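Chapter review. Work through the record for Class I SAM-dependent methyltransferase before attempting the end-of-chapter questions.
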Amino acid sequence: MADECFRHPRLAAVYDPLDPDRGDLDPYLRMTEEFGARQVLDIGCGTGVFALRLAARGIRVVGVDPAGASLAVARGKPDGDRVRWIHGDATALPPLAADLATMTGNAAQEITDPENWHAFLRGARAALRPGGRLVFETRIPARRAWEEWNREATYAVTDVPGTGAVEYWVELLDVSGPLVTFRQVYRFAADGQVLTSESTLRFRERREVETELVARGFVVEDIREAPDRPGREFVFVARRPETAH
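Structure tokens for Class I SAM-dependent methyltransferase:
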């Protein structure tokens, strides 16, 4: 199930204004060109920022997300009808033959249950044509990103057009092995409403991800750094082989 920040209509509506700098998507756009992808599956597409950028380049895009409120925002954007939006996840997709499947924004870490992770990898592989690639990012555990997830480091006030000022901050709740739980807090100045969204992320080691990709029928083609966050994230490029193995 999607976190509250994605499935609550009021929070989904302010998701983009509260995170306007999406320079993190630029490397994925470049990889789309690098791999010559003409059909892309955007897994965990959220409010559709990346999917719509691809569609603007003439690429056929399918965006899938379990959060209906986020998809409603995506559909309502200019040119939203140029993307095929699917309410669901990678485990129950219609037949596709994508050149590239992407999962941006560290969304892969939101899949915390091992069986669900395996099902995701199987579903993503099935959605690719032979030779197609899956690309996703995940934070490097040793960098301990959660140490910066506190009110002092994250507090901000954003004036959202049509909504008013929104206060936002993060509170770290628990660190248990590879699982990190935190709370996002939103306060709407217009009426004083406070909404929260709790999330748990799984921090996977590089070798763990490589092993599970291979076990699910992928070839690990490359492991890169996120150019805008050097040393902080792994970017995995995995290929579905041309022939079964």
